[in-house]
Design goal:
The protein is mostly helical. The protein has a single domain, classed as Growth Hormone, Chain: A (Up-down Bundle). It contains 22 helices and no strands. It is globular, with a radius of gyration of 22 Å. The chain starts with 11 loop residues before the first helix and ends with a helix. 56% of the residues are buried.
């Protein structure tokens, strides 16, 4: 059954109300995601975790299901109610966050974080599509940048609320309270946000009729088949390895992950067939993923870095890092959206080029901020004080914290314009699959693994050097996005 085409978009006041509600939901998304970072010290002490194990909690455990399940949930959202999908997702991830407070060991906490990922899988891509339907193309980068305000608000909220609750009443209380917040907000989303009429074609109408026509589902089906077969082969290999007593967990996990990706692509085969042949999609997705290795990884590990290298307590770190995340994040996200929208009037290439430049500036700024004690010694006679070094670090950290988030508005807006309107949720999920599976899973886990690897040489400072080693991903991200700026005009749909 087709929906009638809207004569106009919703009134300005209401669409901004919807945007506000979606920002709150997105903030809760990142509160539940970021809280694991501020609770690193008590969790590691409680369960005797290595940095590698903790990295798995914030990376693989969450991102493996978050990335893969986002595709079938987005496909469903494109065909049903995006508001209902998001409400259910909010309830699920909030419930599992609360359950983290009851975890009795690493395994239980790992499963609970997977549950958080299951819920959050249905929260972002449908929101992107809702915003794209509520706002005209010339305002989308700014609207999506406004939506992305939920990231620094959530990061700051998760760090501050989680840290202070943990410092006062323990880490279990922090998980429970934060989880209950989401369950309270879910009815607000369900009963006050209207599902807008979708633009252009309806999701029930086929986009093409010919098997061989551009935009048919042939490419998507082939990609799904390849992923399923590779996953099956890895699972068979894991079974053989287990039978002969060899290591089997890694190939089993990889095989299962590829199998889920393949099944997800099979569900989203039509949207996949549209984006897979477009170079811009791959350059945008891989560029975002490369930056996210550092963006997500550094954000997740900085609280522990401040406690190890800056000698801050849990409560002090909560206030310190929440200020950096909130101020720097809000400025960077909004600035990226505004600049990209203005420059894109002349060239669509401005959408990826804006964050590409920002990433090149971010890397050296992070290094300078982490070495504020040395820097203050060069600037002030006598070497300065600990307080002065902390103030200087705070001010410098604002710069890369903002710059590394400038991509959110421009790149997500660009992805929305690579496909017809009925495919926006699914296309966003495919983009997020690459971004989060490579960026979030690899980033958070990489810094933990590298910290343990460097610990014999650098001791408590191993995390500092692990973060240094990841800065090259910003350079790679810039190169990929510069490439996208040259292809985007050709791949643009609306």
């Amino acid at each position: 059954m087709s929906m009638p085409e809207p004569s106009s978009r919703p009134r300005s006041a209401y669409r901004f109300y919807v945007l506000g509600v979606l920002i709150v939901v997105y903030a809760l998304n990142f509160i539940d995601r970021q809280i694991i970072g501020i609770l690193a010290a008590p969790l590691k002490a409680e369960f005797d975790l290595s940095d590698t194990q903790f990295g798995l909690l914030g990376g693989i455990a969450f991102a493996s299901v978050y990335s893969t399940l986002a595709i079938p949930l987005a496909w469903l959202a494109d065909r049903t109610s995006r508001v209902w999908i998001m409400t259910g997702a909010l309830a699920v991830w909030s419930g599992f966050t609360a359950l983290c407070g009851a975890a009795g060991g690493f395994g239980q906490l790992f499963l609970c974080r997977m549950g958080v990922g299951v819920g959050e899988a249905g929260g972002v891509a449908p929101a992107y599509a809702l915003i794209a339907d509520y706002f005209p193309p010339e305002q989308r980068a700014r609207a999506l940048a406004g939506f992305a305000f939920g990231i620094p608000i959530g990061m700051a909220g998760g760090t501050l609320v989680g840290g202070l609750l943990a410092a006062t009443w323990g880490w279990r209380t922090a998980f429970v309270v934060v989880g209950l917040l989401g369950l309270v907000v879910a009815p607000l989303l369900l009963f006050t946000v209207r599902e807008p009429r979708r633009e252009r074609q309806t999701v029930a109408e086929p986009l093409v009729t010919s098997e061989d026509a551009p935009g048919s589902d042939k490419v998507g089906r082939r990609a799904a088949t390849v992923a399923v077969w590779l996953g099956a082969l890895l699972l068979i290999g894991a079974g053989v390895a287990a039978a002969i007593g060899a290591a089997w967990t890694a190939p089993a996990f990889g095989g299962g992950l590829l199998l889920v990706i393949g099944l997800s692509l099979a569900v989203a085969k039509q949207a996949a067939s549209v984006v897979i042949p477009k170079p811009s999609f791959w350059l945008l997705a891989l560029g975002a993923a490369s930056s996210s290795v550092c963006g997500y990884g550094v954000a997740g590990w900085l609280p522990l870095f401040f406690m190890r290298s800056f000698d801050l307590t849990l409560a002090q770190t909560s206030w310190y890092y929440s200020g950096i995340a909130l101020i720097g994040g809000l400025a960077g996200i909004w600035g990226g959206g505004v600049v990209a929208d203005r420059l894109a009037r002349k060239s669509k290439g401005a959408y990826p080029l804006t964050p590409a430049i920002a990433f090149l500036i971010s890397a050296p700024c992070f290094v300078l901020a982490m070495n504020s004690h040395w820097l203050i010694g060069q600037l002030l006679p006598g070497g300065g004080t600990q307080a002065q070094a902390l103030v200087l670090a705070f001010l410098i950290f604002l710069i890369p914290t903002g710059l590394n988030l400038t991509w959110l508005g421009p790149l997500t807006a660009a992805v929305q314009s690579l496909v017809p309107a009925p495919m926006r949720s699914t296309a966003s999920a495919l983009f997020l699959l690459i971004n989060n599976l490579l960026g979030l899973a690899v980033g958070f886990s990489y810094f933990g693994w590298m910290s343990d690897l460097l610990a014999p040489r650098f001791g408590e400072e191993s995390l500092r050097w692990a973060i240094y080693s990841g800065m090259g991903f910003y350079v790679l991200a810039s190169l990929l996005l510069i490439g996208a700026s040259r292809t985007l005009k050709r791949d643009w749909v609306d």
